[in-house]
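Query structure, 426 tokens:
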């Protein structure tokens, strides 16, 4: 355990040496993404759009004005023909022109629209809630993408630190070997083997650094903020207080909103068949006016009320309600399927956490053994008992054991984060 603590201390020192930069946490990335990710701006846009839609619906309660005009020419008109006695032959009946002109202003005022507008406003509110919750679902999924990149960077940084430690050990050993070669007590082939291994480590460092820089670029894009590729990432401290299944995912709320919205749409079916009462008025000017026997241009007006009621719709409303019931059941099955998959995923996550915890315990034992073996091999190389190739093999085995420990340590934290993500607790 002391050697493990020493190793971790070296890793921290190494990170500070090559980093010398700002510290970035996983939760910092979450908060930054919530502020700057383009999708997050849609929430305000949706609210403004909804306000305009509600304002437009409220105008259904205001009078509707229409200006109409027409000019017609017809083949025949109404005539009065009476056989009068000769003494009344001087009486002339009006002649109606076959060209007619009319300009009117029509006013319609809804008195009762069957509550159609009221339900339309409710529906728009649920549309807004559904759209906003969909944004939350996508933003929550973004956290998972951030998790994948963040932990890959952290692992690359730790690998780079271990490779540098390994490189320093080999360089130190190479100086000892070169001194022994100079004094004629050791063959130069031992130094060649160490130099070849150092070149191999340099290759691994190039690959690791390139992957790290690329991963930082991806993370910067995800949170819409530049993170220097030498930033130091902090491994989160994660505590799982309970293993009981508790679904807090935003998808669950979205399903609930969708079901409620379907219920509103079902109730809205009745409004289309409710009685509707309107008041109307018309003012006009033209020829003829209301007096069809007058051939003069005259103004006129009319006012009145109108009631419409479709008293039989051939069970259309009944069938539409059944359709919405089916849609509600479909959403219910989608919700049930989602929760079942979450339960499976959560159970797998807990098993992964337990497995990695056990592997870490074994890693500590293996590292302690490999460290002792490498220490012995170092002394044997100094005394010429083994070759540098044998020493490199032992050192590589120790490094691989340490890499396995780091991998499992990071995977354990990542598994805990993934478990919390599954339950919607991030």
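Result returned for the query:
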């Amino acid at each position: 355990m002391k050697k493990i603590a020493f190793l971790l201390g070296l890793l921290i020192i190494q990170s500070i040496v090559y980093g010398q930069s700002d510290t970035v946490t996983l939760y910092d990335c979450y908060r930054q993404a919530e502020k700057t990710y383009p999708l997050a701006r849609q929430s305000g846009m949706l609210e403004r759009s909804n306000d305009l839609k509600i304002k437009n619906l409220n105008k259904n309660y205001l009078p509707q004005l229409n200006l109409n005009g027409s000019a017609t020419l017809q083949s025949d008109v109404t005539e009065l023909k009476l056989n009068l006695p000769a003494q009344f032959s001087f009486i002339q009946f009006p002649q109606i022109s076959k060209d007619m002109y009319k300009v009117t202003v029509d006013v319609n005022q809804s008195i009762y629209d069957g509550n159609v507008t009221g339900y339309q406003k409710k529906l728009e509110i649920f549309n807004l809630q559904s759209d906003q919750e969909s944004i939350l679902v996508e933003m929550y999924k973004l956290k998972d993408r951030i998790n994948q990149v963040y932990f890959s960077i952290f692992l690359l940084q730790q690998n780079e630190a271990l490779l540098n430690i390994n490189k320093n050990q080999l360089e130190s050993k190479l100086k000892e070997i070169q001194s022994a070669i100079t004094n004629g007590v050791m063959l130069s082939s031992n130094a060649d083997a160490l130099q070849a291994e150092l070149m191999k480590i340099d290759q691994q460092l190039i690959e690791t650094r390139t992957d790290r820089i690329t991963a930082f670029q991806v993370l910067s894009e995800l949170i819409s903020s530049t993170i220097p590729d030498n930033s130091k990432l902090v491994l989160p401290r994660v505590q799982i207080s309970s293993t009981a299944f508790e679904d807090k995912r935003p998808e669950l709320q979205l399903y609930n909103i969708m079901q409620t919205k379907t219920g509103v749409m079902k109730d809205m079916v009745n409004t289309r068949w409710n009685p509707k009462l309107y008041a109307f008025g018309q003012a006009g000017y033209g020829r003829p006016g209301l007096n069809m026997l007058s051939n003069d241009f005259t103004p006129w007006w009319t006012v009145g009320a109108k009631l419409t009621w479709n008293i039989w719709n051939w069970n259309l409303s009944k069938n539409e309600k059944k359709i919405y019931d089916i849609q509600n059941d479909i959403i219910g099955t989608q919700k049930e399927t989602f929760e079942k998959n979450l339960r499976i995923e959560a159970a797998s996550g807990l098993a992964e956490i337990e497995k990695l915890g056990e592997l870490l315990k074994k890693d500590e034992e293996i590292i302690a053994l490999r460290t002792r073996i490498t220490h012995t091999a170092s002394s044997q190389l100094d005394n010429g008992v083994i070759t540098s190739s044998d020493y490199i093999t032992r050192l590589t085995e120790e490094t691989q054991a340490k890499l396995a420990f780091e991998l499992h340590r990071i995977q354990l934290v990542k598994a805990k984060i993934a478990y919390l993500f599954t339950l919607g607790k991030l």
